[in-house]
Amino acid sequence: PPELSILSSCSPSQLEGLCSFLQLSTCPEPFLGRFCSWLLALSPDLSYTSAAILAQQLFLRRVLSLTQPPSRHLMAALTSFCSKYSHPFCRVLVAAVLQEPGEGAEQTKLMCELVEECLEPHSVQLVLSQVLEVPLSEKLLPVLQAVLGRQEVLPPELLDLLVLTLCQQAPAFATSLSFAKLVTAMLTVYQSQV
């Protein structure tokens, strides 16, 4: 709809107010996919800040409250949004999931799925750098495994940080099968650099 062009011209505070007025954070999931397809068609593209605000309003509450796999409507909306605005999406959503205490099994599975299937290579690197900024936990090992599974060429400094983190954390994960798989994958994918 032509009315959506207002999203490109709003200031951040206006956009937050508009999202609140439209109740985007609680809109029905079937509407989310349609709304995201409209966002992709916007011209000019949304600014980074606007995309980050929309990622927060549309997805943050839904993703953090997942207790079972996301519905196909939510997954379609996430995939659609990530296809164009993966960087602001990662900055908002991945950061929030990483800082969430507890197991967060569904959130971890969702992050792995997004890394494996949706994110651009530069966004995969962003996810990796975000994971390496927080203390490593059993919950995060599958996310690192998904990143390695992409077999992306990593910048030397990021690869060095990954190797250093794994070396430092090895004693804490001495009995972890997931950690052993991760180190094996690391040595397989990045053998020459390691």
UniProtKB/TrEMBL annotation:
GO cellular component terms given for this protein: Fanconi anaemia nuclear complex
A family per Pfam: FA_FANCE
Residue ranges annotated for the Fanconi Anaemia group E protein C-terminal domain, each copy included: 1-193
TM region positions: none
GO biological process: interstrand cross-link repair
Signal peptide: none
InterPro entries found in the cross-reference section: FANCE (IPR039685), Fanconi_anaemia_gr_E_prot_C (IPR021025)
The protein, known as: FANCE protein
Lineage: Eukaryota, Metazoa, Chordata, Craniata, Vertebrata
